[in-house]
Amino acid sequence: MTTVTSQSPKITEATTVSLIVVVSFCHMFNDIMQSLLSAIYPLIKTNYNLDFRQIGFLTMTFQITASLLQPVIGIITDRWPMPYSLPLSSVSTFTGLLLLANADSYTVLLIGSSLIGLGSAIFHPEASRVARIASGGRHGFAQSLFQVGGNFGSALGPLLAAFIILPNGQSSVAWLAIIAVFGFIALTRVSRWYAEKQRQSKNKPAADRTLPLPQGRVMFAILVLVLLTTTKNVYMASISSYFTFFVIEKFDVTVQNAQLMLFLFLGASAAGVFIGGPIGDRMGARFVIWFSILGVIPFALMMPYANLFWTCVLAVVIGIIFSSAFSAIVVFAQELVPGRVGMIAGVFFGFAFGAGGIGAALLGDFADSHGIEYVYWLCSFLPLLGVLTILLPRLPKKMAA
User: Fold this and answer.
1) CA atoms within 13 A on the CB side of 391
2) Do 96 and 115 contact (CB within 8 A), yes or no?
């Protein structure tokens, strides 16, 4: 894949959009493989006789691994870009899936989940940077297109689990590890394009890293965004990790039907991410964050009391509205701290995983002691913390644009 430097603007734009699409597909591959872990929880819970606490700890192991390493990798690659680190993420995830497929103990499951987390930690900061470089200034669009691939991957994982892994057993996870091979090939090509852009940029002035606001206000705004991300991802973790158990227990549906309901939620989340980016480019990231975080509150509060039909409807509505904020949060944070794309991607993608993982572990304890329906009643109040959005500053117009 080559960089076009002397073509017309239309050709150049088409080339960069095609690159973002490739990176988005790689994100889809990456998150399909990651979502398989939570998608096969009902299977491994039975196979290894696990309780909800152990299920939560599996999620925490995966997500904390990614959370701790992603910001570190982002900071390092901001200073020393590593284009060819991208294919290594597929290698790590491939190894983790093989371990999950052939695990003979809970310990091996933990090691496999940590390797999948490592793959995530390597992938997200550099892939997010590639999407921004190729954006042509349409940062919200690029970030949402990049992110929607991941959301579709997360949505496809439960379907693959329902129709391939559940009928054929845990060892069939190894069949899906072939996806990592396709990811490796595509990311190798992306890395070549990225490396060429890095060589070209050496002859250009360094990116402006002047803060748009006083340092104290920037740090406070980043803290607010982190807290909003925490709220959002603990709630999302409650659904991605335990939604199948919730609908099986409350409505007595089959495991496959529960996986289909999870697919509805995750598919709606993917649609929300894609919608949120372009709206953020037009209306501003701050507006999208306001709408998403506060708009979901009434629907989240209704979820624990809904029947089966309305649970499906509410899951779709919540998925669309709540997920529309993520690309806006990342873009807003990148504008607050210019020139630190990798660090911001690492913090927010990584913190998203970490917060969700800690939340999943705590919710697992509550599910064991109080029941899964109590967990969903408790989580329905989490979006109320979205009132923190009022504390976000308005960026100067030239930065917000």
Assistant:
1) 16
2) yes
CA distance 119 to 237: 19
In order, the DSSP letters of 15-46 are HHHHHHHHHHHHHHHHHHHHHHHHHTHHHHHH
pLDDT score of 82 more than 90: no
Provide φ and ψ at 386, rounded to 5°: -65, -10
Residue type present at position 183: G
135 three-state secondary structure? coil
- Rounded to a whole number of angstroms, the CA Rg of the chain reads 20
Phi first, then psi: give them for residue 5, nearest 5 degrees.
Answer: -115, -20
pLDDT tens digit sequence for 39-77: 788 888 888 998 888 888 887 888 778 777 888 888 888
pTM, two decimal places: 0.70
**DSSP reduced 3-state for 56:** helix
- For residues 341 and 334, is the Cβ–Cβ distance under 8 A? yes
Rounded Cα distance between 197 and 4, Å, is 10
Q: Which residue has the tokens 């919710």?
A: 363
b/e sequence 278-294, b meaning 16+ C-beta within 10 Å: bbbbeebbbebbbbbbb
Domain ranges of the chain: 12-400
CATH of domain 12-400: 1.20.1250.20
